[in-house]
Amino acid sequence: MNPPPKKAPQWDIAEAQRIVQEKLGGIKADIYLFGSRADGTMGRYSDIDIGIDPHYPLPTSLLAEIREALEESQIIYHVDLVDLSQASETFRRRVLEKGVQWKG
């Protein structure tokens, strides 16, 4: 089996974005791509890091539902999903400053 290419295919990132936004439905939240895929320093097997910064607390089971949908998708990279409202303020601030906010 060939290793994944150095750069994540745009399809994988777009599919991750679609899944997260679809599962959030009408829940108001800002969504960020962060880490090496956002800043261009990814390696061959780098994961896709996604931060959700909800305007209100997320329903308890929602993150698990989103993670399951991502795992069952055709995305070839591991997707790390973080509820930024539950992260440390330092980590959250770093994602908001350096991450790429998804529109849509």
UniProtKB/TrEMBL annotation:
It holds the Pfam family Polbeta. Residues 31-100 form the Polymerase beta nucleotidyltransferase domain. Transmembrane segments: none annotated. CDD domains: NT_KNTase_like. PANTHER family: NUCLEOTIDYLTRANSFERASE, PROTEIN ADENYLYLTRANSFERASE MNTA. This is DNA polymerase beta domain protein region. It comes from Nitrosococcus halophilus (strain Nc4).
